[in-house]
Amino acid sequence: SSISMIIGLCLLFFMLSNVDAYGQKCSPVFGNCNMHTDCCSGRCLTYGSRCGYPAHRLKETYLSASEFQSIKKQRAHSNNDEVKVIGLPSESEPSNIFFKIDSAAKCHNVGEPCSRGEECCNLRCHSYMHRCVT
């Protein structure tokens, strides 16, 4: 029957399309990795160069709309916090001198070293190469 032959061919093509053409082996959990594709789980913890557990193994947490709004409000208020300088009892009070910054902070261009995204002009720092990327 032609229908069973078509179904069989579809299954065969589907299975062949999922075969790794290069036969590369993946690293198990806690194995060495440089990219997510190096790990069988698909998760490379780049700060430690080790494979992590698959994402579906992690606990999923969801916030209700009210919880989300309260977190947003807390973060908005946290920017207005004051900094209090406390010294030793024998020290004099800190002066009320404010520093005026005349120039903007220098950001790093693509290819320059970085350790955080905020250091790059485009706010993207590669996590294990420690370079600003596009």
TrEMBL record:
Q: Where is the signal peptide?
A: 1-21
- Which keywords does this Swiss-Prot/TrEMBL entry list? Signal
Highest taxon listed in the record's lineage = Eukaryota
The name this protein goes by in its record: CG34034
The gene name on file is: CG34034
